Amino acid sequence: MSQTRLVLNEATYQLVLKELVMEARRLLWIVTADIKDLYIEDGKEFVPFLKVLADKLREGVEIRLVHAKEPGPRFREDFDRFPELVEAEGFERILCPRMHMKCVIADGRKAYVGSANLTGAGMGAKSPHRRNFEAGVVTEDRETIGELMTFLDAFYLGDHCVKCQRREVCPDPIA
Predict the structure, then answer these.
(1) What is the tens place of the pLDDT at every residue in 121-172?
(2) Residue 56 belongs to domain spanning
(3) Residue 57 DSSP symbol
(4) Number of domains into which the chain is organized
(5) CATH code (residue 89)
(6) What is the rounded distance in angstroms from the CA atom of residue 14 to the CA atom of residue 38?
(7) In a 3-state reduction of DSSP, which class is residue 88?
Protein backbone atom coordinates (compact mmCIF):
# COMPACT_ATOMS: atom_id res chain seq x y z
CA MET A 1 0.00 0.00 0.00
CA SER A 2 1.42 3.38 -0.98
CA GLN A 3 1.78 6.10 1.57
CA THR A 4 1.37 9.85 1.18
CA ARG A 5 2.32 12.21 3.98
CA LEU A 6 1.74 15.93 4.42
CA VAL A 7 4.96 17.88 5.05
CA LEU A 8 4.83 21.31 6.70
CA ASN A 9 7.52 23.93 7.34
CA GLU A 10 10.70 22.64 9.03
CA ALA A 11 9.64 19.00 8.55
CA THR A 12 10.60 19.55 4.90
CA TYR A 13 14.27 19.64 5.91
CA GLN A 14 14.10 16.28 7.69
CA LEU A 15 11.82 14.40 5.29
CA VAL A 16 13.19 15.74 2.00
CA LEU A 17 16.87 16.57 2.56
CA LYS A 18 17.84 14.24 5.40
CA GLU A 19 15.75 11.24 4.35
CA LEU A 20 14.53 11.26 0.74
CA VAL A 21 17.75 12.65 -0.77
CA MET A 22 19.97 10.45 1.39
CA GLU A 23 17.96 7.32 0.51
CA ALA A 24 18.60 7.70 -3.24
CA ARG A 25 20.71 4.82 -4.58
CA ARG A 26 20.15 4.97 -8.37
CA LEU A 27 18.65 8.30 -9.37
CA LEU A 28 17.82 11.63 -7.84
CA TRP A 29 15.80 14.26 -9.68
CA ILE A 30 15.58 17.72 -8.13
CA VAL A 31 13.41 20.46 -9.59
CA THR A 32 13.18 23.95 -8.10
CA ALA A 33 12.47 27.49 -9.16
CA ASP A 34 15.14 29.00 -6.91
CA ILE A 35 18.40 27.48 -5.74
CA LYS A 36 20.86 28.94 -3.26
CA ASP A 37 23.91 27.89 -1.28
CA LEU A 38 21.93 25.56 0.97
CA TYR A 39 23.79 23.78 3.78
CA ILE A 40 22.81 20.46 5.35
CA GLU A 41 23.78 18.85 8.63
CA ASP A 42 26.28 16.02 8.15
CA GLY A 43 27.09 14.55 11.54
CA LYS A 44 28.34 17.39 13.71
CA GLU A 45 28.91 19.98 10.97
CA PHE A 46 26.99 21.66 8.19
CA VAL A 47 28.21 21.06 4.64
CA PRO A 48 27.10 22.50 1.30
CA PHE A 49 24.20 20.59 -0.22
CA LEU A 50 26.35 20.48 -3.35
CA LYS A 51 28.82 18.29 -1.41
CA VAL A 52 25.97 15.88 -0.72
CA LEU A 53 25.23 15.79 -4.46
CA ALA A 54 28.93 15.24 -5.27
CA ASP A 55 29.02 12.37 -2.75
CA LYS A 56 25.91 10.85 -4.35
CA LEU A 57 27.57 11.03 -7.78
CA ARG A 58 30.63 9.20 -6.38
CA GLU A 59 28.22 6.52 -5.08
CA GLY A 60 26.90 6.09 -8.65
CA VAL A 61 23.60 7.96 -8.23
CA GLU A 62 22.48 9.72 -11.44
CA ILE A 63 21.31 13.27 -10.72
CA ARG A 64 19.15 15.68 -12.69
CA LEU A 65 18.95 19.23 -11.36
CA VAL A 66 16.47 21.63 -12.96
CA HIS A 67 16.15 25.24 -11.81
CA ALA A 68 14.68 28.47 -13.11
CA LYS A 69 17.40 31.05 -12.69
CA GLU A 70 21.14 31.34 -12.42
CA PRO A 71 22.18 30.95 -8.77
CA GLY A 72 24.13 33.60 -6.89
CA PRO A 73 27.91 33.85 -6.44
CA ARG A 74 28.11 31.81 -3.22
CA PHE A 75 26.35 28.88 -4.88
CA ARG A 76 28.70 29.13 -7.87
CA GLU A 77 31.75 29.18 -5.55
CA ASP A 78 30.51 26.02 -3.81
CA PHE A 79 29.68 24.44 -7.18
CA ASP A 80 33.25 24.99 -8.40
CA ARG A 81 34.63 23.22 -5.31
CA PHE A 82 33.16 19.89 -6.46
CA PRO A 83 34.59 18.76 -9.83
CA GLU A 84 32.14 15.82 -9.92
CA LEU A 85 29.38 18.32 -10.68
CA VAL A 86 31.18 19.32 -13.89
CA GLU A 87 32.89 16.09 -14.90
CA ALA A 88 30.48 13.30 -13.94
CA GLU A 89 28.44 11.82 -16.76
CA GLY A 90 25.70 11.10 -14.24
CA PHE A 91 25.03 14.79 -13.49
CA GLU A 92 22.68 16.78 -15.71
CA ARG A 93 21.70 20.38 -15.02
CA ILE A 94 19.05 22.34 -16.88
CA LEU A 95 18.13 25.98 -16.51
CA CYS A 96 14.56 26.91 -17.53
CA PRO A 97 13.13 30.33 -16.64
CA ARG A 98 9.58 28.92 -16.82
CA MET A 99 10.21 26.20 -14.23
CA HIS A 100 8.27 26.95 -11.10
CA MET A 101 7.72 23.38 -9.92
CA LYS A 102 9.40 22.08 -6.78
CA CYS A 103 9.94 18.35 -6.44
CA VAL A 104 12.50 15.75 -5.45
CA ILE A 105 12.31 12.17 -6.71
CA ALA A 106 14.47 9.35 -5.32
CA ASP A 107 14.86 6.15 -7.32
CA GLY A 108 11.40 6.53 -8.84
CA ARG A 109 10.00 5.16 -5.58
CA LYS A 110 9.50 8.20 -3.38
CA ALA A 111 8.81 11.84 -4.24
CA TYR A 112 8.28 15.22 -2.65
CA VAL A 113 6.06 17.77 -4.38
CA GLY A 114 5.41 21.09 -2.70
CA SER A 115 6.09 24.78 -2.38
CA ALA A 116 9.65 24.71 -1.00
CA ASN A 117 12.52 25.91 -3.18
CA LEU A 118 16.00 24.44 -2.72
CA THR A 119 17.05 27.19 -0.33
CA GLY A 120 17.65 27.35 3.42
CA ALA A 121 14.49 29.39 3.96
CA GLY A 122 12.45 27.03 1.78
CA MET A 123 13.74 23.71 3.03
CA GLY A 124 13.66 24.71 6.68
CA ALA A 125 17.41 24.78 7.24
CA LYS A 126 17.24 28.26 8.82
CA SER A 127 16.12 29.53 12.19
CA PRO A 128 12.37 29.04 12.87
CA HIS A 129 12.00 32.83 12.80
CA ARG A 130 13.61 33.23 9.35
CA ARG A 131 12.35 30.30 7.30
CA ASN A 132 9.43 30.36 4.90
CA PHE A 133 6.05 28.79 5.53
CA GLU A 134 5.91 25.74 3.25
CA ALA A 135 3.62 22.83 2.49
CA GLY A 136 4.00 19.73 0.37
CA VAL A 137 3.57 15.98 0.28
CA VAL A 138 5.94 13.05 0.26
CA THR A 139 4.44 10.13 -1.61
CA GLU A 140 5.26 6.54 -2.50
CA ASP A 141 2.27 6.27 -4.87
CA ARG A 142 3.73 4.61 -7.98
CA GLU A 143 1.12 5.99 -10.37
CA THR A 144 1.64 9.59 -9.19
CA ILE A 145 5.43 9.27 -9.30
CA GLY A 146 5.24 7.64 -12.75
CA GLU A 147 3.18 10.54 -14.14
CA LEU A 148 5.55 13.06 -12.57
CA MET A 149 8.60 11.32 -14.04
CA THR A 150 6.96 11.09 -17.48
CA PHE A 151 6.27 14.84 -17.41
CA LEU A 152 9.82 15.62 -16.30
CA ASP A 153 11.34 13.28 -18.87
CA ALA A 154 9.40 15.03 -21.66
CA PHE A 155 10.58 18.36 -20.25
CA TYR A 156 14.17 17.10 -20.05
CA LEU A 157 14.05 15.92 -23.68
CA GLY A 158 12.92 19.40 -24.77
CA ASP A 159 9.31 18.62 -25.72
CA HIS A 160 8.10 21.87 -24.12
CA CYS A 161 11.09 23.89 -25.28
CA VAL A 162 10.27 23.69 -28.98
CA LYS A 163 6.89 25.44 -28.54
CA CYS A 164 7.95 27.78 -25.73
CA GLN A 165 7.10 31.42 -26.30
CA ARG A 166 9.70 32.60 -23.76
CA ARG A 167 12.81 31.55 -25.68
CA GLU A 168 14.02 35.15 -25.82
CA VAL A 169 14.62 35.08 -22.05
CA CYS A 170 16.01 31.55 -21.96
CA PRO A 171 19.77 31.49 -21.36
CA ASP A 172 20.19 27.88 -22.52
CA PRO A 173 17.38 26.34 -24.63
CA ILE A 174 17.17 22.56 -24.39
CA ALA A 175 16.05 22.16 -28.02
Answers:
(1) 898 777 778 889 999 999 999 999 999 999 999 988 888 888 888 878 888 7
(2) 4-139+148-164
(3) H
(4) 1
(5) 3.30.870.10
(6) 14
(7) coil
